[in-house]
Amino acid sequence: RPFHSVSKNPPTGGLKENTVSTYDILVWLHVSFAILWVGGNVMINLIAIRARTSGDGTQLAALFRTLAWFGERYFLPVSLLTLVFGFWLTSEGDWSYRDSPWLLLALAIYAAAFLVGMLFFGPESKRIVRLLDSDPAAEDTGTTQRMRRYLNIAHMDAAALLVIVFLMAARPLD
């Protein structure tokens, strides 16, 4: 059901009715949650680069405690909401998956990123936090190696999300 508002029509000075459709609302929701997901991911990666290059193990340890907390409470929900509103948008817009190879490629990258998040980032961040409980300054080489591996994969994950944004915006292969 469309939403209605009334606004002034500047050229004629009269009033005109504006309609915001369900599709428009879904575009807004999908893009908003994608911004929250991808933007948050990129920002965390930039903070991680700063923490990693600082040489301060306690700063890196604090970052991993934050990552463990945000993973389940922020990144998981916003990534799922991005997907849900994307599917709903595709249905409402009468998009064809068969005729949109860019969409299928974006979904495949999303699936891979989601699985990496669920199977690696979530469990690994919890393992690292447990290690940090006994090594608060992250001085143990095993802990620092785990953190480095985690961050290397996180940087690749951020790049994959930016590829999804490109595919959604440019729609190549169409």
Describe this structure in a few short sentences:
The chain is mostly helical and 174 residues long.
Overview of this structure, please?
- The protein is built from four helices and two strands, in the order ββαααα.
- It has 174 residues and is mainly alpha-helical.
- It has helices spanning 22-54, 57-92, 101-134, 141-170; strands at residues 3-8, 15-20.
- The model is unreliable at 1-10 (pLDDT under 50).
Which regions have little confidence, pLDDT < 50, spanning 5+ residues?
Answer: 1-10
Compute the gyration radius: what is it?
A: 21 Å
State the shape. Answer: elongated
The largest pleated sheet is described as: 2 strands, antiparallel
The oligomeric status of these chains comes to single chain
Helix content: over 70%
Span between N and C termini?
Answer: 30 Å
Q: What string, H for helix and E for strand, traces the elements in order?
A: EEHHHH
- If strands are numbered along the chain, what order do they take across the biggest sheet? 1-2
Strand coverage percent: 5-15%
**Secondary-structure class:** mainly alpha
Number of helical elements: 4
Record field, number of beta strands: 2
Output mean pLDDT: 88
